[in-house]
Design a protein that fits this description.
With 359 residues, the protein is of the alpha/beta class. The chain is built from 13 helices and six strands. The strands form two sheets. A four-stranded mixed β-sheet has the order 4-5-3-6, with helices on both faces. It has a two-stranded antiparallel sheet with strand order 1-2. It is elongated, with a radius of gyration of 26 Å.
């Protein structure tokens, strides 16, 4: 059995496979992914008309086809080579993105290929120019994974946006400082709880501190776009950190809940994690100065039982509080990745989102 990260089957140059793809393009183009349709359209245009069966099997066509597959491999697996670890070199994650994997050699680097058109470099760009460009986009400090989506429009939007702007991403110094400040807040908060309340049950955010600057960015960008209310649903892990550093619940209240004696704890029976079930509401100011309403809903479960509650609450707020303007309320549901793949309330909520009555 092959390993799940074994992409060796992609390196074979099968002429019959190329012929079959082109035959499908000529007879039933809707059956092909849009990237293949664009490939054959571009090649036909450059060749001055329809390509004959003899042309499709020529060395030139095979080379073009392999360069195009190399481009697609960067789009699908370039994130496996992204330089996102500032401490040590990236481990080998078997991305299988090299010249040898696609029957190409160093001798091809200075040759021009029509496929340069598909990455915005123009027909005739050399293979070296194509690869340098794709490495800059997909193997830099930001990794992006989107080719798994079954939605063609989503894939196309991600590809076009990232390939046109990815190399120019450079946040202003004030934005970088804000991100760093939010990361520090998340880290220091977890360190304090660990040292101050030793032995107490704690569902920390350690390892996922980027959640805090990510939420901050969502809120700021949403407010900039006209959103007025942000409603969060999440399980226990990281909840106190979000309450403190995103929603604005004071450290005094949170620490008092750890020590016991809060209003919520009085008379409550349980195993000491009552504070992880609580909700909170605040009015805050986004980075751009807009006033926003932040809310994290109570959740009685370690699991995301709150997911459909958030969806229903936001739906009612849109209808009753914002005159059916869906842009005014942003629901945010935070969960573990296994919650989507498994049979559970998160998966069921996602499925219900496509129900006509929910639209």
């Amino acid at each position: 059995m092959k390993r799940v990260d074994d992409f060796s089957h992609l390196s074979a140059s099968d002429n019959q496979y190329i012929d079959s793809l082109y035959d499908t393009y000529k007879n039933n183009p809707d059956e092909l992914d849009d990237s293949w349709v664009n490939f054959f359209k571009g090649f036909e245009f450059q060749m001055g008309g329809a390509v004959t069966e003899g042309d499709i099997s020529s060395d030139k066509m095979r080379k073009e086809f392999n360069v195009f597959r190399l481009i697609q491999s960067f789009r699908a697996r370039g994130h496996l080579l992204s330089d996102t670890n500032p401490i040590r070199p990236r481990q080998d994650r078997h991305a299988r993105i090299s010249l040898g994997d696609y029957d190409l050699t160093d001798d091809d680097l200075n040759q021009g290929f029509l496929c340069g058109e598909f990455v915005g470099l123009g027909a005739g760009a050399t293979l070296k120019q194509i690869m340098d460009y794709l490495r800059t986009i997909y193997c830099g400090k930001i990794g992006i994974e989107y080719m798994h989506s079954n939605n063609t429009e989503v894939r196309r939007w991600c590809r076009d946006y990232f390939e046109s702007k990815g190399k120019d991403i450079n946040y202003p110094i004030e934005t970088k400082k804000r991100i760093l400040r939010k990361l520090n807040q998340a880290q220091i908060f977890e360190n304090f709880l660990q040292n101050k309340f030793i032995g107490q049950k704690r569902f920390s955010l350690e390892g996922g501190e980027t959640t805090i600057p990510a939420l901050d960015t969502i809120i700021n960008k949403g407010a900039e776009s006209g959103a007025k209310e942000f409603v969060i649903g999440m399980a226990h892990r990281g909840r106190l950190n979000v309450l403190a550093n995103t929603i604005g619940k004071t450290y005094e209240f949170i620490f008092k809940e750890f020590e016991g004696g809060s209003v919520e704890d009085m008379g409550a029976e349980g195993d000491g994690d009552v504070k992880y079930h609580l909700g909170y509401t605040s009015i805050s100011e986004a980075a751009g100065g807009q006033e926003v309403y932040l809310k994290i809903l109570p959740n009685p479960s370690h699991l995301e039982a709150v997911a459909p509650v958030v969806s229903g609450y936001c739906r009612s707020q849109i209808d009753m509080g914002y005159a059916s303007d869906e842009n005014k309320v942003i629901p945010i549901i935070i969960h573990g990745d296994a919650a989507v793949a498994g049979q559970g309330v998160v998966y069921e909520t996602l499925q219900m989102s496509e129900c006509r009555l929910c639209l």
